[in-house]
Amino acid sequence: MKPSTPSSTAPSPNLRVVTTPAELRAALAGGGRVGLVPTMGYLHEGHAALIRQARRACGVVVVSVFVNPKQFGANEDLGRYPRDLERDLGVVGAAGADLLFHPDAATIYPAGYATTVSVSGVSGPPEGTSRPGHFDGVTTVVLKLLNLVQPDRVYFGEKDWQQLAVVRRMVRDLNVPVEVVGVPTVREASGLALSSRNSYLTPGQQARATVLSRALRAVQAAAAAGERGAAQLRQAGLEVLAQEPEVQLDYLTVVDSDMQERARVENDPMTRVLVAARMFGVRLIDNVPLWPVPLGPEGGEA
């Protein structure tokens, strides 16, 4: 089953596709405020929400589609990661982007390439521990894209919460002149967070994967009932996950704005509950704010 897509995916006649830095610079010459949406393709409604938010704020919207080999580990799914450029063109055009930047690996990492961008601290647990080197690959390609596009704003989904935190720290530490905008997670009606990797699951498996979002909601409910102990909050989620035998848990954790676990939590809007697990051979991640907020216009947390 493919991930949800916007109802209309006809390519826009105004959408321009570029594949090289020279073409990109020429296409951006003389433009207004530029927004960038970096993606690895196989786009769905969550990506469309990023593009639409960029469209509302920027005069020129660039979407990059590049499956970045440097953020995949040796035993991860680089070779089978879903790819469908024709479909992506439809999603990007329908959501209102102006440019689609689709470079190949040799363009981004030419022969002799020898530089890696690494952010310490916030790139550690939980995700950095499970996927060593992953965030180095993310920050390296993101910084390259920021240098190539030179956007005023760059948009990321909150589903990859730690990635968003790592990019924000990199931008701050390196004085990159860009505003990093986090966009709330878009979900299926069932509660399942949209992800390109959902395409690996059958409809029935996707229904069972909603146990992850249900576990996160259980942690939220425990906090709303007055629980402040991190171990007790985590236990509330573990009890839900235990109901689904297919869950192979990587982590379920409550972290602060610096991605640190604390013994007790405070009523801080930046406190987040994160989960990662394998189900049916597919690694899925999700997160929610510990303190729920009203739904936004795209259907995720505002």
TrEMBL record:
Residues bound to beta-alanine: 71
Active site: 47
Domain of life: Bacteria
Subunit composition and interactions: Homodimer.
Main subcellular location of this protein, as a coarse class: cytoplasm
Catalytic activities: (R)-pantoate + beta-alanine + ATP = (R)-pantothenate + AMP + diphosphate + H(+)
Name of this protein: Pantothenate synthetase
Pfam families to which the protein is assigned, alphabetical: Pantoate_ligase
Record: residues binding ATP: 40-47, 157-160, 186, 194-197
GO molecular function: ATP binding; pantoate-beta-alanine ligase activity
Pathway as given in its UniProt record: Cofactor biosynthesis; (R)-pantothenate biosynthesis; (R)-pantothenate from (R)-pantoate and beta-alanine: step 1/1
GO cellular component, one term: cytosol
Keywords: ATP-binding, Cytoplasm, Ligase, Nucleotide-binding, Pantothenate biosynthesis
SUPFAM superfamilies for this protein: Nucleotidylyl transferase
Organism in which the protein naturally occurs: Deinococcus phoenicis
Compartment(s): Cytoplasm
Family classification: Belongs to the pantothenate synthetase family.
Other facts noted in the record for this chain: The reaction proceeds by a bi uni uni bi ping pong mechanism.
GO biological process: pantothenate biosynthetic process
EC number: 6.3.2.1
Physiological role: Catalyzes the condensation of pantoate with beta-alanine in an ATP-dependent reaction via a pantoyl-adenylate intermediate.
Binding site for (R)-pantoate: 71, 163
